[in-house]
User: What shape does this take?
Amino acid sequence: MSLKLGVPSKGRLMEKTFAWFDKRGITLSRTGSDREYAGRVDGIEGVSLVLLSAGEIPRELAEGRIHLGVTGTDLVHEKLPLWDQQLQEVAQLGFGQADLIIAVPACWADVDTLDDLDAAAAGFRARHGHRLRIATKYHRLVRDFLTHAGVADYTLVDSQGATEGTVKNETAEAIADITSTGETLRANHLKILSDGLILRSQATLWRSRTAPLEAADKQVLELLLDRLAK
Amino acid sequence: MITRARILEQAAQLRARFEAAGAQAVETPILQPAETLLDLYGEDIRARAYITSDALRGEQMLRPDFTVPVVQKHMEHGAEPARYTYAGEVFRRQEHDPDRANEYIQVGYEVFDRTNPAAADAEVFALIAQALDGLALRAATGDIGILMAAVAGLKTTEPRKAALMRHIWRPRRFRALLDRYAGRTPVPPARAALLAAADPLAGGAPEIGKRDRADVEARIAVLRADAAAAPISDNEMAGLDALLSVRETMPFALEHLRDIAVDLPQITPALDRLEARIAALRARGVDVDRLDFEASYGRTSMEYYDGFVFGFYAERRPDLPPIATGGRYDALTRRLGNGAEIPAVGGVLRPGLMLLLAESEI
Assistant: This one.
């Protein structure tokens, strides 16, 4: 057995994760061809690299199939309602910052707060005969947030990508999505509600509370955590 | 050991008891069309019910309760008056507490009778109380109809009353609206700027989406009218605050509410109904002098109860959900009845929890 470290398998998130570990003397790299999802770990013995989709890392950690994993706070909170019982935060990695927010068309001069959104939803439903649609892939987080705020007469519609475009395409009236600079929102003529911040997210290293640890793995884990803390 | 077989046996006994009281046993499908329930409860139901789908029928929901299908059945071809009983599984999604069951057996009793609502309320409560006899339970009662009557009779604008009525079941938002309409919270800066702007739509943002300029203009008109309207008076606010904090045994609660009705005379008809209910409960042998009444009770449950509400709780097991709940849902029959309506009241019990308590009390 060895200690399994799950890392996003592509893109900037993978590169920045590799750089973060590299700075701490642990070199992660992909092996084989560009298309093969295999990797190696240098600089410490007994750790193996598992390349995964960032979206699958929360589940793999919760199920205990990997011991450590890098993924965003947003995905952990969305996919694992009891995340703090299953996972432990080891370190915030200082990149991949993004806010999960609620945004509406900038032309809605009358809407600035959740209170306005609720009133707008009531009026919209009365006039158009259906609930105000909010496009998102973060169903649980958004629903909990809106329930807590007492917003009614909305419905969530699933959008797994290009969410900012749904309003113009009239498949949704508003959106809940992650944004880092707000550039894409502005380009799509959307504005963020002043009290519409649901969650601040960034790339984070998590430790599974459920993954079984053999004695040797335990030593490796302690050594690794010690190295990463420096 | 509380086996499924024992729970089913207990459920069958409860259903037989309700049949003996004059109810007709009914069955409803486990898979319910999701549209009706989504339309009634909105997005909140998705957090509480399991939704599945197929390519032909679209979204289906695993029965989260029996009330909606039983009301539909009655509105389609029920004779009047009618009493129904049922027993079977309900399914509730659990996303926060792994110890709460996501599938359990429920037994219910529902009365559709327009002749004497107070007597029907008392009948349902008394039958359920008798079925629970011997268990150490605390009963809580309330009446959403009193708060609704208070709101409907406020001396303020119709849009304000409609907004408050819409949030009767969301106490936090209800309170925020009330404080705003009473001028107790400052106007948010963005709202003040909007109201002060000569042409709020001059921002130049391109118009996108189905919520169009007419929607925005209509809401701005509502906001302007609201800003010009007088705040809800201190007198009415004091009356509402007093009403919401009433929590006493039934006869004292009534007396207290009668005092509050001096400031909120609109609640008097609802209080007359409460008085008639107390008399009907007493006639059924319920010890109303020891029965708790809370004016705010039942506001956080599923939003269809609009009159009498009640629940039975295990005093020594505060971790358990209520063992039985029920109430009046006249408005639900209106919404599902396509124009027809009938006063209705009912309640449900959880035989599995009853056995659990009986066992732990030996």
Q: What stands out?
A: DSSP finds eight helices and twelve strands in chain A.
